[in-house]
Amino acid sequence: MLRLHTLSLRRGPRVLIRDADITIHPGWRVGLTGANGTGKSSLFALLLGELAPDQGDCMLPPDWVIAHVAQEVAGSDRSALDYVMDGDGELRRLQAALARAEAAGEGTLVGELHARLDAIDAWTAPSRAGRLLHGLGFQPGDESRPMATFSGGWRMRLNLGRALMCRSDLLLLDEPTNHLDLEAVLWLEQWLIAYSGTLLLISHDRDFLDRVVTHVAHVEQAHLRLYTGNYSAFELARAEALAQQQSLHERQQRDIAHMTQFVARFRAKASKARQAQSRLKALERMTQVAAVHAASPFRFAFRPPRRLPDPLLQLDHVAGGYGADPVIQGVNVSLHPGARLGLLGPNGAGKSTLIRILAGELSPLSGQRESSPDLAVGYFAQHQLEQLDPQASPLLHMQRLDERAREQELRDFLGGFGFVGDQALAPVAPFSGGEKARLVLALLVWQRPNLLLLDEPTNHLDMDMRHALEQALQEFTGAVVLVSHDRHMLRSVCDDFWLVAEGRVTPFEGDLDDYRDWLAARDRQPGEGAEGEEGAVHSAAARKARKRDEAALRRQLKPLRDQVTRLEREHSQLEQARQSLDQALADPAIYEASARTQLQTLLGRQADLARQLAATEAAWLEASEALEAAEAAAR
């Protein structure tokens, strides 16, 4: 097992983790969470032996094999398949020893090595590596390509495949989904669930964490605490702990105020001096319960667009690609204000190509792209992070964008994206990927677009920033087209989905669970299943008929699913309003005579919210029951 005993880690004078004392048992899958910069990656470096603890101990079984994903790799002529197979270090050592033994004619040793290779199932290693490459999105034929021919993002996928190939006891994954599309994320999710070793996973993708982890280790204010359950269970447990801490803090503050008033009133009176002194000593001995500081450091909203033409943009029989052969064709799209569209589709099917055509960065090979004269596009893509001026500060980037804006106004705006104090004036060059992504988003938001095109905007963003972005997108009055592997973001933002597949762009009549089923059906081999009558079930005609029936069922159920989703969103907004109101009513000042009118207003609002919540819950229950009944009838 992995044990951290009174462990502390520092980065210079700053304490990252203080007095951590946790035990992680074999087979646990632990999500390591916390805001960027809290020490999660430093903890990985400690486990890999790259850092030493400043205090305490980190204890691991000496025979454990640790696998992790290298962050950088130089290009080479080694094939993708060989590179991934190199992740199994024992396999490569035995193969090298076998080659030496055969060359030396040591027959006995050759037999022993063959037995050991049999024991680790060495003969299936190429097929296992091939399945890893396929799951991570590589196409047939890619396994023989030299590494040097792949881009940086694809090399990171190769590094991930190499780590998964290792028959490890402990697997360390730091944001493994950042360079994956949704299809590969769904595959990786299933692979990790079946992993038999111990997993430590850093991720800001809550759906991914929810489905993979059995425990959560959360870093906050230099404290590392272990929770049992998935991410949703952790959020609930943490919310309850924070509420209890805040209640204790408020009660203690009332006790302190009461004691302080007593001391101030009676300290000078001889008859009360002993009691006053006793209270002073009690105040000195009292362990202070800190107030809760769980608020997100990010706060921003999209400013209303200057104009909202309708339609914003239309594509008429458009074909798009990067050469003579189009990637997508026959695309007919009309974007209107208020649209919330998510793009789904396998890797390489043309999602980014479509986004670039919508953005005007790529001209159609044929067909027409017609945009309103008042169209204002806000386009976010990963390559824009590299186009930032490394020597310029966030403030200078903003000033170049809007020379007439006041400096204080720009600094206040940047503060909503986490650039406060000196960081707003620091050069961009040493910024992390998350900080650069936040700056690109800030530049985009400031320009008041009426059409947002977001291609994987959540890469490198932590939970707080993702939540702030979700809230801002929900309130945005223009249109949104989103490509993301973050299912929580897709569910929270998108009302409809388009499927980009087989060269076409078509409405997808279903939700993300239906899309997962679509991927599974697409990957199912035609010959799967028994022969005879069972084989007829898997015939091309049967599959086509089944797909027709599934599409019809999705169309039939979509209104009910949309209604359930809408009611869930309304309930969440009402619940947030109720919590804010409860906080206002918890303020003792509201019960003073001078605030009577305000109190009556708040109490009236509280009663109104209670009625709305009850009505929404009843409607949600009714819609959910109707949906379940419809799904059961369809089975």
From TrEMBL:
The keyword RNA-binding does not apply. SUPFAM superfamilies: P-loop containing nucleoside triphosphate hydrolases. It comes from Ectothiorhodospira magna. Keywords: ATP-binding, Nucleotide-binding, Repeat. Residues 2-246, 313-527 form the ABC transporter domain. The lineage of its organism: Bacteria, Pseudomonadati, Pseudomonadota, Gammaproteobacteria, Chromatiales. Residues 524-555 are annotated as: Disordered. This is Probable ATP-binding protein YheS. Gene3D superfamilies: P-loop containing nucleotide triphosphate hydrolases. Belongs to the ABC transporter superfamily. ABCF family. YheS subfamily. InterPro entries: AAA+_ATPase (IPR003593), ABC_tran_Xtn (IPR032781), ABC_transporter-like_ATP-bd (IPR003439), ABC_transporter-like_CS (IPR017871), ABCF (IPR050611), P-loop_NTPase (IPR027417). GO terms for molecular function: ATP binding; ATP hydrolysis activity.
